[in-house]
Amino acid sequence: MNYRRSSVPAAVLFTVAILALGYAAFGIWTALIFTSGFMGGFLLWMLVHTTVPFAAIRVPFWIAFALFLLHRVEEKVYGFFDRLASITGTPVPEIDSVPVILLILLSVGAWLAVPALVKRGYAFGYYLAWTFFAAMGITELAHFVLPLFEDQPYGYFPGMASVVVLAPCAWWGMYRLSRSSGPTF
Q1: Helix, strand, coil tally for the chain in percent (to 5)
Q2: Could you give the percent of the chain with pLDDT greater than 70?
Q3: Could you tell me if 106 and 17 are in contact, meaning their C-beta atoms sit under 8 angstroms apart?
Q4: Residue 182 and which of 80, 93, 107, 147 are 20 to 30 A apart at CA?
């Protein structure tokens, strides 16, 4: 338990850093959307004490990560950030801006560290796993809400198609992560 408590300040700082970078890069509305994944992941980590082996979450983690990459391609191809900017009124940041680069390095880089950290039983690794699954399973559902803010009939919003598969995969990961000991397939 003390080991877990010692990771809480790092998890709080990481969460605040991600949300601050999200705000700097995309403005308040997008940062609020990010909050559901990172604050949600933090709260789930605090509430659900788990020490499942990485083998218990390996399959949903890697499938969700691959689907996340596919999702990012769908967003890019169909102009997600342009549509989001038209809703929020915040211009699309340059991909090479410092906040965007740091946001990608911190979030995606940390998520790539999940396998190594969880295999070693680090509490911070479980926190990152929760943020990953919450971001993919909760935050990405915003793709179904965003069309409600446009001045046109409800329809496809860039990224929506891949979320149909990505979100349930992340829910599976959260389920497996929440088990006191999970199956290893």
Answers
A1: 80, 0, 20
A2: 95
A3: yes
A4: 107
